[in-house]
Protein backbone atom coordinates (compact mmCIF):
# COMPACT_ATOMS: atom_id res chain seq x y z
CA UNK A 1 0.00 0.00 0.00
CA UNK A 2 1.37 3.39 -1.03
CA UNK A 3 -0.52 6.71 -0.98
CA UNK A 4 -0.04 10.48 -0.76
CA UNK A 5 -2.66 12.86 0.61
CA UNK A 6 -3.19 16.30 2.09
CA UNK A 7 -1.89 16.41 5.67
CA UNK A 8 -4.64 18.69 7.01
CA UNK A 9 -7.41 16.61 5.43
CA UNK A 10 -5.95 13.43 6.94
CA UNK A 11 -5.57 15.06 10.37
CA UNK A 12 -9.16 16.35 10.29
CA UNK A 13 -10.49 12.91 9.33
CA UNK A 14 -8.51 11.21 12.07
CA UNK A 15 -9.78 13.72 14.65
CA UNK A 16 -13.31 12.52 13.82
CA UNK A 17 -12.66 8.79 13.68
CA UNK A 18 -10.59 8.47 16.86
CA UNK A 19 -13.69 9.26 18.95
CA UNK A 20 -15.12 5.87 17.95
CA UNK A 21 -11.92 3.93 18.68
CA UNK A 22 -12.02 1.65 21.71
CA UNK A 23 -9.76 2.85 24.52
CA UNK A 24 -9.33 -0.73 25.78
CA UNK A 25 -10.60 -3.84 24.06
CA UNK A 26 -10.08 -7.61 24.18
CA UNK A 27 -9.71 -7.24 20.41
CA UNK A 28 -6.42 -5.27 20.04
CA UNK A 29 -7.25 -4.16 16.49
CA UNK A 30 -10.17 -2.09 17.81
CA UNK A 31 -7.67 0.16 19.60
CA UNK A 32 -6.46 1.18 16.16
CA UNK A 33 -7.78 2.88 13.04
CA UNK A 34 -8.59 0.76 10.00
CA UNK A 35 -6.70 2.39 7.10
CA UNK A 36 -8.11 1.36 3.72
CA UNK A 37 -6.95 2.58 0.31
CA UNK A 38 -9.19 1.98 -2.70
CA UNK A 39 -8.60 3.80 -5.99
CA UNK A 40 -8.25 7.54 -5.23
CA UNK A 41 -9.71 7.37 -1.73
CA UNK A 42 -8.55 6.63 1.82
CA UNK A 43 -11.24 5.37 4.22
CA UNK A 44 -10.46 5.70 7.92
CA UNK A 45 -12.59 3.69 10.37
CA UNK A 46 -12.93 3.74 14.14
CA UNK A 47 -15.12 1.17 15.90
CA UNK A 48 -15.77 0.26 19.56
CA UNK A 49 -18.51 -2.38 18.94
CA UNK A 50 -21.18 0.15 19.94
CA UNK A 51 -20.47 2.92 17.44
CA UNK A 52 -18.38 3.30 14.31
CA UNK A 53 -17.23 6.36 12.36
CA UNK A 54 -15.86 6.21 8.83
CA UNK A 55 -14.36 9.19 7.05
CA UNK A 56 -12.96 9.36 3.51
CA UNK A 57 -10.05 11.45 2.23
CA UNK A 58 -8.97 12.00 -1.38
CA UNK A 59 -5.50 10.73 -2.22
CA UNK A 60 -3.04 9.85 -4.96
CA UNK A 61 -2.80 6.08 -4.97
CA UNK A 62 0.18 4.09 -6.10
CA UNK A 63 -0.85 0.83 -4.45
CA UNK A 64 -4.14 -0.15 -2.79
CA UNK A 65 -4.45 -2.08 0.45
CA UNK A 66 -5.56 -2.18 4.09
CA UNK A 67 -3.97 -2.21 7.53
CA UNK A 68 -4.66 -1.18 11.12
CA UNK A 69 -2.57 1.60 12.67
CA UNK A 70 -2.42 2.58 16.35
CA UNK A 71 -5.07 5.30 16.65
CA UNK A 72 -3.35 7.38 19.32
CA UNK A 73 0.16 7.26 17.84
CA UNK A 74 -0.95 7.70 14.23
CA UNK A 75 -3.13 10.72 15.08
CA UNK A 76 -0.42 12.30 17.23
CA UNK A 77 2.11 11.89 14.43
CA UNK A 78 -0.11 13.31 11.67
CA UNK A 79 -1.28 16.38 13.58
CA UNK A 80 2.34 17.26 14.56
CA UNK A 81 3.74 16.90 11.05
CA UNK A 82 5.07 20.02 9.33
CA UNK A 83 4.26 20.06 5.64
CA UNK A 84 1.42 19.89 3.13
CA UNK A 85 1.56 16.32 1.82
CA UNK A 86 1.82 13.05 3.74
CA UNK A 87 3.22 9.93 2.09
CA UNK A 88 2.29 6.58 3.65
CA UNK A 89 3.76 3.28 2.56
CA UNK A 90 2.99 -0.12 4.10
CA UNK A 91 4.97 -3.13 2.90
CA UNK A 92 3.90 -6.77 2.81
CA UNK A 93 5.33 -7.31 6.32
CA UNK A 94 3.07 -4.52 7.67
CA UNK A 95 5.92 -2.07 8.23
CA UNK A 96 4.42 1.41 7.82
CA UNK A 97 6.52 4.43 6.82
CA UNK A 98 5.05 7.92 7.20
CA UNK A 99 6.85 10.84 5.49
CA UNK A 100 6.05 14.54 5.53
CA UNK A 101 8.58 17.30 4.89
CA UNK A 102 11.78 16.22 6.62
CA UNK A 103 10.00 13.95 9.11
CA UNK A 104 9.98 10.18 8.82
CA UNK A 105 8.20 7.72 11.15
CA UNK A 106 8.27 3.93 11.07
CA UNK A 107 5.38 2.06 12.71
CA UNK A 108 4.34 -1.56 12.93
CA UNK A 109 0.84 -2.01 11.51
CA UNK A 110 -1.60 -4.85 12.15
CA UNK A 111 -3.34 -7.09 9.67
CA UNK A 112 -6.74 -5.70 8.57
CA UNK A 113 -8.13 -9.22 8.80
CA UNK A 114 -8.02 -8.83 12.59
CA UNK A 115 -10.45 -5.89 12.41
CA UNK A 116 -14.14 -6.87 12.96
CA UNK A 117 -16.67 -6.17 10.22
CA UNK A 118 -18.56 -2.92 10.68
CA UNK A 119 -22.38 -3.10 10.99
CA UNK A 120 -24.23 -2.94 7.68
CA UNK A 121 -27.49 -0.97 7.62
CA UNK A 122 -30.14 -1.18 4.93
CA UNK A 123 -30.93 2.20 3.35
CA UNK A 124 -34.51 1.41 2.32
CA UNK A 125 -36.14 3.78 4.83
CA UNK A 126 -35.11 6.90 6.68
CA UNK A 127 -35.16 10.68 6.68
CA UNK A 128 -33.09 13.53 5.29
CA UNK A 129 -32.64 16.93 6.87
CA UNK A 130 -30.05 19.74 6.96
CA UNK A 131 -27.01 19.02 9.12
CA UNK A 132 -27.31 22.17 11.21
CA UNK A 133 -30.99 21.44 11.89
CA UNK A 134 -30.24 17.96 13.24
CA UNK A 135 -27.36 19.39 15.23
CA UNK A 136 -29.67 22.00 16.75
CA UNK A 137 -32.38 19.45 17.55
CA UNK A 138 -29.86 17.23 19.33
CA UNK A 139 -28.50 20.20 21.27
CA UNK A 140 -32.01 21.23 22.28
CA UNK A 141 -32.90 17.81 23.74
CA UNK A 142 -29.71 16.04 24.80
CA UNK A 143 -29.72 17.66 28.26
CA UNK A 144 -32.84 15.65 29.20
CA UNK A 145 -31.32 12.23 28.43
CA UNK A 146 -31.23 10.02 31.50
CA UNK A 147 -27.97 8.83 33.03
CA UNK A 148 -29.75 6.16 35.10
CA UNK A 149 -28.88 2.71 33.78
CA UNK A 150 -31.90 1.18 35.56
CA UNK A 151 -33.91 2.18 32.48
CA UNK A 152 -31.37 1.82 29.64
CA UNK A 153 -33.77 2.89 26.87
CA UNK A 154 -33.99 6.36 28.43
CA UNK A 155 -30.21 6.82 28.18
CA UNK A 156 -30.91 7.69 24.55
CA UNK A 157 -33.26 9.88 22.54
CA UNK A 158 -36.33 8.66 20.66
CA UNK A 159 -36.40 9.37 16.92
CA UNK A 160 -40.09 9.34 15.95
CA UNK A 161 -41.06 9.72 12.29
CA UNK A 162 -44.67 10.07 11.18
CA UNK A 163 -44.86 10.85 7.48
CA UNK A 164 -42.72 13.95 6.95
CA UNK A 165 -42.79 14.96 10.63
CA UNK A 166 -39.75 14.15 12.76
CA UNK A 167 -39.76 14.40 16.55
CA UNK A 168 -36.74 14.00 18.80
CA UNK A 169 -37.62 13.19 22.43
CA UNK A 170 -35.50 12.86 25.59
CA UNK A 171 -36.65 12.12 29.14
CA UNK A 172 -34.92 11.45 32.45
CA UNK A 173 -37.76 11.21 34.98
CA UNK A 174 -37.49 14.86 36.05
CA UNK A 175 -37.81 16.62 32.70
CA UNK A 176 -38.90 16.05 29.15
CA UNK A 177 -37.64 17.66 25.94
CA UNK A 178 -39.39 17.42 22.56
CA UNK A 179 -38.34 18.99 19.26
CA UNK A 180 -40.41 18.71 16.09
CA UNK A 181 -39.56 19.59 12.46
CA UNK A 182 -40.74 18.79 8.95
CA UNK A 183 -38.24 16.62 7.03
CA UNK A 184 -37.98 14.50 3.90
CA UNK A 185 -38.81 10.87 4.64
CA UNK A 186 -38.70 7.77 2.46
CA UNK A 187 -39.67 4.14 2.87
CA UNK A 188 -42.13 3.46 5.70
CA UNK A 189 -44.45 6.33 6.60
CA UNK A 190 -44.07 5.76 10.36
CA UNK A 191 -41.23 4.30 12.42
CA UNK A 192 -39.28 5.04 15.58
CA UNK A 193 -36.00 4.03 17.20
CA UNK A 194 -33.82 5.08 20.13
CA UNK A 195 -30.24 6.33 19.63
CA UNK A 196 -27.82 6.22 22.61
CA UNK A 197 -26.91 9.55 24.16
CA UNK A 198 -23.19 8.78 23.76
CA UNK A 199 -23.69 8.51 20.01
CA UNK A 200 -25.71 11.73 19.84
CA UNK A 201 -23.02 13.60 21.76
CA UNK A 202 -20.40 12.57 19.19
CA UNK A 203 -22.78 13.17 16.30
CA UNK A 204 -23.50 16.74 17.43
CA UNK A 205 -19.77 17.33 17.70
CA UNK A 206 -18.95 16.26 14.14
CA UNK A 207 -22.04 17.46 12.26
CA UNK A 208 -21.18 20.46 10.06
CA UNK A 209 -22.89 23.78 10.76
CA UNK A 210 -24.34 23.88 7.26
CA UNK A 211 -27.38 22.99 5.21
CA UNK A 212 -25.63 19.93 3.76
CA UNK A 213 -28.05 16.99 3.98
CA UNK A 214 -27.82 14.25 6.58
CA UNK A 215 -29.45 10.92 5.80
CA UNK A 216 -30.62 8.84 8.78
CA UNK A 217 -31.32 5.13 8.25
CA UNK A 218 -32.59 2.77 10.98
CA UNK A 219 -32.79 -1.00 11.20
CA UNK A 220 -33.87 -3.23 14.07
CA UNK A 221 -30.45 -3.30 15.78
CA UNK A 222 -28.44 -0.45 14.25
CA UNK A 223 -28.84 3.04 12.84
CA UNK A 224 -26.73 4.92 10.30
CA UNK A 225 -26.01 8.62 9.78
CA UNK A 226 -24.45 9.68 6.48
CA UNK A 227 -23.14 13.16 5.64
CA UNK A 228 -20.13 15.02 4.20
CA UNK A 229 -17.92 12.00 3.41
CA UNK A 230 -18.76 10.61 6.85
CA UNK A 231 -20.69 7.48 7.84
CA UNK A 232 -21.56 6.82 11.49
CA UNK A 233 -23.27 3.63 12.66
CA UNK A 234 -24.59 2.98 16.13
CA UNK A 235 -26.35 0.23 17.99
CA UNK A 236 -29.92 1.16 18.89
CA UNK A 237 -31.38 0.87 22.38
CA UNK A 238 -34.10 -1.67 23.02
CA UNK A 239 -37.06 -1.33 25.34
CA UNK A 240 -40.32 0.57 25.76
CA UNK A 241 -39.71 4.32 25.61
CA UNK A 242 -41.97 6.57 27.68
CA UNK A 243 -45.25 7.53 26.01
CA UNK A 244 -44.44 11.21 26.27
CA UNK A 245 -47.85 12.30 25.04
CA UNK A 246 -49.56 10.94 28.16
CA UNK A 247 -46.87 12.50 30.36
CA UNK A 248 -47.67 16.04 29.19
CA UNK A 249 -50.63 17.54 31.10
CA UNK A 250 -53.32 19.08 28.90
CA UNK A 251 -55.09 21.14 31.58
CA UNK A 252 -52.71 24.05 32.20
CA UNK A 253 -54.87 27.09 33.04
CA UNK A 254 -52.07 29.63 33.49
CA UNK A 255 -50.32 30.72 30.30
CA UNK A 256 -47.66 33.44 30.50
CA UNK A 257 -45.50 34.98 27.80
CA UNK A 258 -41.98 35.47 29.11
CA UNK A 259 -38.67 36.74 27.79
CA UNK A 260 -36.28 33.80 27.80
CA UNK A 261 -33.11 35.84 28.28
CA UNK A 262 -34.48 37.91 31.15
CA UNK A 263 -35.64 34.86 33.07
CA UNK A 264 -32.43 32.94 32.31
CA UNK A 265 -30.28 35.80 33.58
CA UNK A 266 -32.35 36.09 36.78
CA UNK A 267 -32.18 32.35 37.48
CA UNK A 268 -28.42 32.38 36.92
CA UNK A 269 -28.03 35.27 39.36
CA UNK A 270 -29.98 33.66 42.19
CA UNK A 271 -28.13 30.39 41.50
CA UNK A 272 -24.75 31.88 42.34
CA UNK A 273 -25.02 30.59 45.92
CA UNK A 274 -25.88 27.06 44.73
CA UNK A 275 -23.09 24.53 44.30
CA UNK A 276 -22.65 20.78 43.84
CA UNK A 277 -22.66 20.46 47.63
CA UNK A 278 -25.42 23.03 48.23
CA UNK A 279 -28.28 22.09 45.93
CA UNK A 280 -31.25 23.93 47.38
CA UNK A 281 -33.98 24.72 44.85
CA UNK A 282 -34.81 28.09 43.35
CA UNK A 283 -38.09 29.34 44.80
CA UNK A 284 -40.37 30.99 42.22
CA UNK A 285 -43.28 33.10 43.45
CA UNK A 286 -45.71 34.14 40.69
CA UNK A 287 -47.76 37.04 42.07
CA UNK A 288 -49.68 39.65 40.06
CA UNK A 289 -47.19 41.08 37.53
CA UNK A 290 -43.95 39.87 39.11
CA UNK A 291 -42.00 36.65 39.36
CA UNK A 292 -39.92 36.71 42.52
CA UNK A 293 -36.98 34.34 42.48
CA UNK A 294 -35.04 33.47 45.60
CA UNK A 295 -32.76 30.84 47.07
CA UNK A 296 -31.37 30.07 50.49
CA UNK A 297 -28.28 27.98 51.23
CA UNK A 298 -25.74 27.92 54.04
CA UNK A 299 -23.76 30.49 52.02
CA UNK A 300 -26.56 33.02 52.26
CA UNK A 301 -29.64 34.21 50.42
CA UNK A 302 -30.28 35.51 46.90
CA UNK A 303 -33.24 37.36 45.43
CA UNK A 304 -34.28 38.73 42.04
CA UNK A 305 -37.45 39.87 40.25
CA UNK A 306 -38.72 39.48 36.67
CA UNK A 307 -41.74 41.32 35.27
CA UNK A 308 -44.44 39.02 33.87
CA UNK A 309 -47.97 39.46 32.49
CA UNK A 310 -50.52 40.05 35.23
CA UNK A 311 -52.01 36.91 36.76
CA UNK A 312 -54.77 36.70 39.36
CA UNK A 313 -53.55 33.47 40.94
CA UNK A 314 -50.62 33.32 43.34
CA UNK A 315 -48.38 30.30 42.75
CA UNK A 316 -45.26 29.32 44.63
CA UNK A 317 -43.15 26.61 43.04
CA UNK A 318 -39.59 25.31 43.42
CA UNK A 319 -37.22 24.13 40.68
CA UNK A 320 -33.82 22.55 40.42
CA UNK A 321 -31.91 25.51 39.00
CA UNK A 322 -29.98 23.43 36.46
CA UNK A 323 -33.09 21.75 35.11
CA UNK A 324 -34.83 25.10 34.66
CA UNK A 325 -31.79 26.71 33.03
CA UNK A 326 -31.25 23.79 30.64
CA UNK A 327 -34.83 24.05 29.39
CA UNK A 328 -34.73 27.84 29.06
CA UNK A 329 -31.45 27.81 27.13
CA UNK A 330 -32.78 25.12 24.79
CA UNK A 331 -35.77 27.25 23.75
CA UNK A 332 -34.93 28.50 20.23
CA UNK A 333 -37.22 31.55 20.51
CA UNK A 334 -36.66 34.69 22.58
CA UNK A 335 -40.30 34.96 23.59
CA UNK A 336 -41.78 31.72 24.95
CA UNK A 337 -44.93 30.56 26.66
CA UNK A 338 -44.71 29.28 30.22
CA UNK A 339 -47.65 27.16 31.38
CA UNK A 340 -48.49 26.40 35.00
CA UNK A 341 -51.25 24.83 37.05
CA UNK A 342 -50.12 24.67 40.67
CA UNK A 343 -47.07 24.54 42.89
CA UNK A 344 -46.93 20.76 42.60
CA UNK A 345 -47.64 20.41 38.88
CA UNK A 346 -45.09 20.38 36.04
CA UNK A 347 -44.06 23.56 34.26
CA UNK A 348 -44.22 23.65 30.44
CA UNK A 349 -42.25 25.81 28.03
CA UNK A 350 -43.71 26.12 24.51
CA UNK A 351 -43.39 28.36 21.44
CA UNK A 352 -45.67 31.34 20.97
CA UNK A 353 -47.09 29.65 17.88
CA UNK A 354 -47.02 26.08 16.64
CA UNK A 355 -45.50 23.10 18.43
CA UNK A 356 -41.87 22.97 17.29
CA UNK A 357 -40.67 22.42 20.85
CA UNK A 358 -41.91 21.45 24.29
CA UNK A 359 -39.95 21.31 27.54
CA UNK A 360 -41.43 19.92 30.75
CA UNK A 361 -39.81 20.38 34.17
CA UNK A 362 -41.08 18.73 37.33
CA UNK A 363 -41.13 20.94 40.43
CA UNK A 364 -39.17 20.38 43.63
CA UNK A 365 -41.21 20.30 46.83
CA UNK A 366 -40.21 23.31 48.90
CA UNK A 367 -39.29 22.76 52.53
CA UNK A 368 -39.78 25.25 55.31
CA UNK A 369 -36.11 26.23 55.27
CA UNK A 370 -36.36 27.04 51.53
CA UNK A 371 -39.03 29.68 52.17
Helix-strand pattern, N to C? EHEEEEHEEEEHEEEEEHEEEHEHEEHEEE
How many strand units?
23
How many domains? Answer: 3
In whole angstroms, how far apart are the ends?
A: 72 Å
Shape: elongated
The radius of gyration over CA amounts to 25 Å
Q: Which fold name is given in CATH as the topology of the largest domain?
A: DNA Polymerase III, Chain A, domain 2
Q: Which structural class best describes the helix and strand composition?
A: alpha+beta
Q: What's the tally of helices?
A: 7
Helix content: 10-25%
Mean pLDDT: 94
CATH class of the largest domain: Alpha Beta
In percent, how much strand structure appears in the residues?
Answer: over 45%
In CATH, the homologous superfamily of the largest domain goes by the name DNA Polymerase III, subunit A, domain 2
Q: Tell me about the biggest sheet?
A: 13 strands, antiparallel
Instruction: List low-confidence stretches.
Output: none
Could you list some keywords that capture this structure?
single chain; 371 residues; alpha+beta; DNA Polymerase III, Chain A, domain 2; 3 domains; 13-stranded antiparallel beta sheet; eight-stranded antiparallel beta sheet
Describe this structure in words.
The chain is an alpha+beta fold and 371 residues long. It folds into 3 domains: 2-114, DNA Polymerase III, Chain A, domain 2, CATH 3.10.150.10; 126-245, DNA Polymerase III, subunit A, domain 2 (DNA Polymerase III, Chain A, domain 2), CATH 3.10.150; 251-370, DNA Polymerase III, Chain A, domain 2. Helix content is 18%, strand content 46%. The protein is built from 7 helices and 23 strands. Helix 1 (7-17) packs antiparallel against helix 2, helix 3 packs across helix 4 and helix 6 (260-270) runs antiparallel to helix 7 (321-330). The protein is elongated and about 80 Å long.
Amino acid sequence: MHVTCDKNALSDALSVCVHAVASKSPIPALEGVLFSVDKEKITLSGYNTQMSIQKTVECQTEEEGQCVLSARIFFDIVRKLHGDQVEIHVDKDLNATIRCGKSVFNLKAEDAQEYPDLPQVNRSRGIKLPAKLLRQMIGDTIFAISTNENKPVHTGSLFEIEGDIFRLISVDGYRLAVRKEAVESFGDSAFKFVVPGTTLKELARILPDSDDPVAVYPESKHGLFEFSETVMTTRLLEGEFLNYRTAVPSDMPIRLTINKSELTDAVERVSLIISERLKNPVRCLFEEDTLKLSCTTTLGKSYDVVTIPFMSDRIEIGFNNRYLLDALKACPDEEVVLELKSGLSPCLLKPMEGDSFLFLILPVRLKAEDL
